[in-house]
């Protein structure tokens, strides 16, 4: 169960026994586990290296288990930070890939196949989406990582959305949690759901994605500049991966219009995600961009979390958050 944190099964069983029987040492542990003291000592060395046990202050030769909220909490936080860093690196690699695609096309001339189509501006992207909307048969899935929609975007979306919903097309859209503070987008959500559309929100989204009838996907060429245009793809394996990503996010998302739910530790999904992002080393400004929040909002949320943690500094807040299992 804890192998994802680097523990072998023997070490995990040893740790569990030590938590239940803090006075036991290698002989008692070996007897209970039905193994040798040498094997137990190897597990103890492993647990010591991972920071899950340490020498007793009263009896230096005896090892004692650290409580899970601190020991395992620290390992989990480190693992989550590593996963977040890996996700960021994959996003950077994706951006680099699209940049190389543009460079190759600039050098060799436009290259389009039956599975790839380049849309070279924001206008051409919008026009192509409008064309595809007229032909959609059953479903549109969309990820929109914006803090709120502009009046122009809302007007354009309402026209297209009303047309496809009138034909019985399923329309599901994921936005950032931060749009809950955007009145115009809230009004749009009420209007859309009244027509049969569905909108949910999550703390973060990887990029803008539109999938039509599970056959066509539209992705941005440049994640930071929508004016650079988009890539239209029809590759079945790419579409399947994007649909799987959407469904995973949709399952954990909260319907727009309902109040933000707190978990059993009193945290909203947005608060927990902010803690994870800042723990990974991101600045407040970068965290705000990721969550679609202003710098002021990020600092306000962190100030509230620090108050709840009774922490006087960000460092102390990080330690207390790990101890409480918030990370």
Largest sheet: 8 strands, mixed
Task: Please estimate the helix content.
Answer: 40-55%
Categorize the overall geometry.
elongated
* CATH class placement of the largest domain: Alpha Beta
- Reading side by side through the largest sheet, how are the strands ordered? 3-9-8-7-4-5-6-10
Quick check: average pLDDT? 82
Return the structural class.
Answer: alpha+beta
Q: Please name the fourth-level CATH homologous superfamily of the largest domain.
A: Endonuclease Chain A
Number of strands: 10
Spans where pLDDT lies below 50 across 5 or more residues? none
Q: Any idea what the CATH architecture of the largest domain is?
A: 2-Layer Sandwich
What pattern of helices and strands is seen along the backbone? HHHEEHEHEHEHEEEEHEHHHH
**Beta-strand percentage?**
5-15%
CATH topology of the largest domain: Endonuclease, Chain A
* Backbone CA Rg: 25 Å
Keywords: Coiled coil
Protein name: HTH luxR-type domain-containing protein
InterPro entries: Sig_transdc_resp-reg_C-effctor (IPR016032), TrmB-like (IPR051797), Tscrpt_reg_LuxR_C (IPR000792), WH-like_DNA-bd_sf (IPR036388), WH_DNA-bd_sf (IPR036390)
Coiled coil: 76-103
How do you describe this structure in short?
The protein is α+β, with helices and mostly antiparallel strands. It has twelve helices and ten strands. It has three domains: 3-66, Orthogonal Bundle (Arc Repressor Mutant, subunit A); 67-109 and 262-327, Winged helix-like DNA-binding domain superfamily/Winged helix DNA-binding domain (Arc Repressor Mutant, subunit A), CATH 1.10.10.10; 112-255, Endonuclease, Chain A, CATH 3.30.870.
